[in-house]
Amino acid sequence: MSDAPPPVVSRNPADPSDILVHVPAPGARAATRAVERARAAQPHWLLDGAAARSAALGAIAAAVEAAADELTALAVREVGKPVTEARAEVARTAAIWRYYAQAPYEPTGVVHETAAGPGLLLTRRRPHGVAGLITPWNFPFAIPSWKAAPALATGNTVVLKPAPEATACAQRLAEIVQQAVPTGVFTVLPGGATEGNAVVSAADAVSFTGSTVVGQAVTLTTTARGIPAQAEMGGLNAAIVLPDADIDTAAAHIASAIAGYAGQKCTATSRVIAVGAALGPLREALAERLRALAVGDPADSATVCGPLISERARDRVIEARRGLPAVATAAPTGSDGWYAAPALVTDLPPGHPLLHEEVFGPLAALLPADDLAQAVRITNSVPYGLVTSVHTATLDATLHGLDHLDTGMVRVNAPSSGVDFHLPFGGTKASSSGPREQGHAALDFYTSQRTYTLTPALPSILA
Predict the structure, then answer these.
(1) Is position 457 within any domain?
(2) 64 and 144 inside one domain
(3) Active site amino acids
(4) Are residues 130 and 168 in the same domain?
């Protein structure tokens, strides 16, 4: 009986007979060796200096832009991302690399006066060494980039272990990055849990995005090792709609956040909380919007909701909505892909899994609330706390949400889905662990702060 890990397999979710990758998994020993090679390359990468690192990241941005059509098509084929979203992700990926290309020139510390006597007190941020990155399949270019770019900018080297379902995208990104950086600075390691565990056990800092169960295990391992880690995990995001909201606009935002990319985003809306008189109009407006959404081939520019990433994911969505009243679009006919119809379900019994578990599909529950206070209590009642959208024309309601919602991000009159890469990203409770990622916060995560005290060896000449 073999102890070898299962092979790495990546299929087109719109056409499962189309296999993009089928290779043996490298195993734990290969993962450890990859980290060791990255560690050997790290001092040289740091000593190359700010100008070299900035130029490299700028070159990566330009190369991503030059390959935009190819990368878009690959994301459509490998992870089933609708082509309009895939094109936007590639553009954002280039912007991320360009944004962090300026980071090597950022100040790395500050100078302070001494409490007494001559000398200098100063702080300085230094890289950890090897950043181990564990990334999901749903943003196959953007998430690896918003982790790798700040890590490289601050002088770390990178070992990236992508989800098996996004292996081809990660390998293509590696080809682009490796053209701009020295050997060993950026490595992609295909594989699954075996390889991921090995990276977590060997790297000097770990950034993880994925399921809550795995993220919690990563946090336990890194805590025991005493290394910095961040884990971005699940979400059970709510959209709160007040009676004074523009119902049609709110419905458009919420429908896109439910069904866009088949709901396969940690920021997707999975609970819609209608306050008071908003319930009836919102139900009708959402029903109309969901019915109008195009479901089908992700290569079609009209498609909003494409396939689920796997047969198991498709079946999980179908089972979650079984027996519940729903408003849903029709799934495409004659397709062998893993499709599930977007749905808004109602009349959930107390304790139903949709009220406390993430499904990760184009499915949301419509819930009534008597007033804003109750809507906030419903929102905060789940184990997760990533993002909440609030739809209202009233500043008072907005401020109440900002003060009382237990989520890491609040978006007012906007979809819950969508993030700004130059701002901190993360949630509360089971959604996130450790420091924020993206923006300047990422530069802090990938470095440690050192404090230096410099005192003269001889008495002051002015004494």
Answers:
(1) no
(2) yes
(3) 232, 266
(4) yes
Containing structural domain, residue 137: 8-233+431-452
228 in the same domain as 241:
no
Say yes or no: 229 and 241 in one domain: no
Establish how many alpha carbons lie within 13 A of residue 53's alpha carbon, considering only the half-sphere containing its beta carbon: 28
CB atoms within 10 A of CB 289: 23
Q: What is the pLDDT along the chain (463 residues), one digit of tens a residue?
A: 456 788 999 999 999 999 999 999 999 999 999 999 999 999 999 999 999 999 999 999 999 999 999 999 999 999 999 999 999 999 999 999 999 999 999 999 999 999 988 899 999 999 999 999 999 999 999 999 999 999 999 999 999 999 999 999 999 999 999 999 999 999 999 999 999 999 999 999 999 999 999 999 999 999 999 999 999 999 999 999 999 999 999 999 999 999 999 999 999 999 999 999 999 999 999 999 999 999 999 999 999 999 999 999 999 999 999 889 887 766 665 578 999 999 999 999 989 999 999 999 999 999 999 999 999 999 999 999 999 999 999 988 788 778 899 999 999 999 999 889 999 999 999 999 999 999 999 999 999 999 999 998 876 665 5
- Whether residues 102 and 24 share a domain: the answer is yes
92 within domain boundaries = yes
- Cβ–Cβ < 8 Å for 183, 41: yes
Please tell me whether residues 99 and 174 are part of one structural domain: yes
Within a domain: 204: yes
Neighbours of 403 (CB within 10 A): 9
CB 359 within 8 Å of CB 269 = no
Quick one: which H or E segment has residue 51? helix 50-66
How many domains does the chain contain in total? 2
CATH number at residue 397: 3.40.309.10
CB 169, CB 399: distance < 8 Å: no
Beta-carbon contacts of 97 under 8 Å, excluding residues fewer than 6 positions away, are 57, 58, 60, 61, 64, 145, 149
